[in-house]
Every structure is written in C-alpha cells, then in structure tokens.
Amino acid sequence: MKRCNWCAEDPLYIKYHDEDWGVPVYDDGKLFEMLILEGMQAGLSWITILRRRENFYNTFDKFDPKKIAKYDDNKLNQILQNPGIIRNRLKVFAVRQNAVAFLNTQKEFSGFKHYLWSFVNEKPQHNAWKNFKDIPTTTEISDALSKDLKKRGFSFVGSTICYAYMQAVGLVNDHLMTCFRYKQLRTKSSLDAAKRNPGR
Fold this sequence. Notes:
Elements: H1 11-19, H2 28-41, H3 46-50, H4 53-59, H5 65-68, H6 73-79, H7 89-108, H8 112-117, E1 125-126, H9 140-151, H10 159-168, E2 172-173, H11 180-196
Parallel strand pairs: 1-2
Helix pairs in contact: 2-7, 2-10, 6-7, 9-10
C-alpha cells in the first residue's frame, strides 16, 4: 500500500496521513483546532506538533475558542511554563487573539466553516501530483485566505501556513496520485456531491 513519502515510517505520522490529512472538515471546533496547530508549526516540523497535540488539547481547554478568548495575560504566562507545548510567547498569545477573531468570523458567517469553504466554492479541490517536490507551498487561494484572515485580526496565518491548513482540513487533496488515499478521497468527494445533488 503506497503512501505519500512525507509520513516516512513514524506510526503517529502514518496514522495522521491515513486518517486525517486531506479529509474535508466541516466541524468548527476541529477547524479551530487545526488553525491553532498549524500556527504552532511555523518554523517547525509537523511531527513535532503531532507529538504534542494531546498536550495542546488539554492545555487550551480542548480548543474551546469561547474559553480561550477569555484568557488573561496571567493565564497565558502560566501556559508558557508548560514543557509539553511549544513555549513560544508570540505563538501562545496568538492563540487568544485567534480565538477572538475566530468567534467574530464564526458569528458573521453563521459558522466558520461557511467562511472557510467559500474560498474553494464549497467543494474540495483534487490536484494531480506525481512528485512531492511539485506540490506548491502557496497558491492564489492561500494568498487570498491569508490576506483576509489577517484583515480579520488573525495572527500566524501567512500564506504558507494557510496552504498547509487547507491541505490538512481537506480544502485541497494533495495526496500524490500514487498514494492509496488519493483515490479514496476523490471517490468520497464524488459520492458526497451525488448525495447533495441527487437529481444531477
């Protein structure tokens, strides 16, 4: 069974690749969690974040944006003492800032998912890559998403982070064509589209 080569042989990485990466996410809670984790990854490898994911989850109140938005500076400084997370002051304080921006955007669009998925016209984009080196780190869409998120008060949402986020939550399917997950996700996307439009 062929996989994308970036997950190597690490069991945690393989599990993430097989079960999460590229799967369309429409749950606001999960979308917020992944946005925070992608921001935490900046300058680091994704496996570093995966190994601390449970610690992040417990430290940040199960990624509840309503609770995080109410954190005061003392709470954030306390979090910075936790060796189980990424102890970067800018990143940790950005979590509260992003929680506030997330809630505002969620309210404006009656769900963050509606806001995010509008950037790809509500349906996953399936690319057709044969080599990992050909996959871009940014696109016009990630540029637009990054610019708009920054305008809305989000931090750690550069275009590269945004594209990684889009890959992670399934706005784009960037599994290599040789990877078993590529076809699975394309098939699921077609079935989901058929369910939404049974008369077509």
